[in-house]
C-alpha cells in the first residue's frame, strides 16, 4: 500500500490553512492521519507552529524528535498515570485537566504544571460545567494556568452560540487564552473580537487535525499492488471461508488488509444503514453478504470475496473485465484517519 504525496502541493495547502487560522495548533495523534507522527511533527516545525497537540501521553515522545515547541496532551490528566505525571512536570508540556478533583490532585503534588482547564460542552465527553469554572480556578495552587479548552461537536448549527456562551463563562471565571476545536477560522476570529474589547481581541488558539493534514485530497493518491490473479467459474469455492464465486471471472489478490485498515472503517451513521436496507431489498451482491471493497479496477469499486486478511484482500472481477497484471498499482480509497500505508512516496 502506497501513499503518493505531491509534497509541494500538500505543503502549499498546509501553508494556506496555517495562514488562515489564528493561533493554529496542529493536532498530531492516532495513526498520524496516515502520515505518521514524525512527518507531521516535521511539517509543524516548518509551519513554525509554537505548539502542537497530541492525543495521549505516549505520543509526546513521537513528536519530540521533529518538533521542539510546546506539546499539549488532549486526553485529560487522571491520577495514577506515571507517564502523565512525569510529563506534567515538563516545562514544554501542557496538561489538560477536566475535573475539579483532578485539579486538586495535581495541585496537591506541588507541581507547577502548565494546565488547560477543559469546559464541558454539548459533546458531554469531558470537562467542568460552566457554573463550576470559578471553583476550579480556586483550586489551581501553583499550577500554571494556560487557558480554557473548549471541544465542540461537529454540527454547525448552534455551534457559534455555544462557543460564545461557554467562552464568556470561562473568561468571567478567569481571563486566559481560549483553545477551541472544530470552529471555522472566520467564526473564531469573530468570537475573539466579540469577547475582547475594541482593538483588543481575546486570545484564541484553534486546534486543527483533519482539515489541516487531509484537507487537500488533490495532493495525494493511495494505491495498492496486485499480488495475484486467478480465473474462477461461478460456483468455484474461494478463500478461507470457501464461499462460492458469484460469477465467472477472476479472483484478484490485492496488497492491503486489516493491518492497513482495509475493511476497518469506523462504524457509519444511520444513513448508510438505510442504504443497506435498500440494497437488500433490490437484491444486490451486498444483500448476498458481499461487501464492496475500496479497490477500483476499470473505473469501478470491486466486491470483496470475503473479509480482508491481515495483509492481503481477495476481490472478484467479472469475466468481461480485463484483469490487471501482477505488480500493477490499483487505486484504493483509504480513510487516512484509520489507515496505515507501507510507504509514502513523495512525487
Ligand atoms: C482530535 C481532536 C482535534 C482534532 O480533530 P480533527 O477533527 O482531526 O481536526 C481537535 N480537538 C480535540 C480536543 C481533539 O481531541
UniProtKB/TrEMBL annotation:
Entry-linked InterPro entries: Ala_racemase_N, PLP-binding_barrel
Residues in coiled coil: none
Domain Alanine racemase N-terminal per the UniProt entry, residue ranges: 6-168
Protein name (Swiss-Prot/TrEMBL): Alanine racemase
Native source organism of the sequence: Microlunatus elymi
Lineage per the UniProt record: Bacteria, Bacillati, Actinomycetota, Actinomycetes, Propionibacteriales
Amino acid at each position: 500500500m502506497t501513499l503518493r504525496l505531491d509534497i509541494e502541493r500538500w505543503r502549499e495547502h498546509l501553508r494556506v490553512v496555517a495562514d488562515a487560522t489564528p493561533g493554529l495548533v496542529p493536532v498530531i495523534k492516532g495513526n498520524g492521519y496516515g502520515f505518521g507522527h514524525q512527518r507531521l511533527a516535521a511539517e509543524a516545525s516548518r509551519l513554525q507552529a509554537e505548539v502542537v497537540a497530541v492525543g495521549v501521553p505516549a505520543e509526546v515522545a513521537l513528536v519530540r524528535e521533529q518538533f521542539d515547541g510546546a506539546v499539549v496532551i488532549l486526553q485529560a490528566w487522571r491520577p495514577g498515570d506515571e507517564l502523565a505525571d512525569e510529563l506534567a512536570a515538563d516545562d514544554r508540556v501542557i496538561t489538560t485537566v477536566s475535573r475539579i478533583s483532578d485539579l486538586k490532585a495535581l495541585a496537591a503534588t506541588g507541581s507547577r504544571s502548565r494546565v488547560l482547564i477543559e469546559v464541558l460542552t454539548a459533546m458531554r465527553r469531558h470537562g467542568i460545567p460552566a457554573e463550576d469554572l470559578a471553583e476550579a480556578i480556586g483550586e489551581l495552587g501553583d499550577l500554571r494556568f494556560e487557558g480554557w479548552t473548549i471541544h465542540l461537536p461537529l454540527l454547525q448549527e448552534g455551534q457559534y452560540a455555544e462557543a460564545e456562551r461557554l467562552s464568556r463563562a470561562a473568561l468571567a471565571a478567569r481571563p486566559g487564552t481560549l483553545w477551541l476545536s472544530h470552529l471555522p477560522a472566520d467564526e473564531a476570529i469573530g468570537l475573539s473580537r466579540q469577547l475582547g474589547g475594541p482593538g483588543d481581541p481575546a486570545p484564541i488558539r484553534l486546534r486543527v487535525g483533519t482539515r489541516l493534514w487531509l484537507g487537500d485530497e488533490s495532493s495525494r493518491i493511495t494505491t495498492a499492488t496486485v499480488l495475484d490473479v486467478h480465473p474462477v467459474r461461478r460456483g468455484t469455492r474461494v478463500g478461507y471461508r470457501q464461499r462460492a464465486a458469484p460469477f465467472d471471472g477472476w479472483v484478484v489478490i490485492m496488497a492491503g488488509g486489516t493491518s492497513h485498515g482495509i475493511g476497518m472503517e469506523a462504524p457509519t451513521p444511520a444513513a448508510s444503514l438505510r442504504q443497506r436496507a435498500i440494497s437488500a431489498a433490490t437484491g444486490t451482491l451486498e444483500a448476498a453478504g458481499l461487501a464492496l471493497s475500496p479497490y477500483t479496477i476499470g473505473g469501478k469499486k470491486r466486491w470483496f470475496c470475503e473479509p480482508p486478511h491481515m495483509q492481503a484482500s481477495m476481490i472478484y472481477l467479472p469475466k468481461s473485465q480485463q484483469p490487471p497484471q501482477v505488480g500493477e498499482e490499483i487505486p484504493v480509497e483509504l480513510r487516512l484517519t484509520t489507515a496505515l500505508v507501507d510507504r509514502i512516496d513523495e512525487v
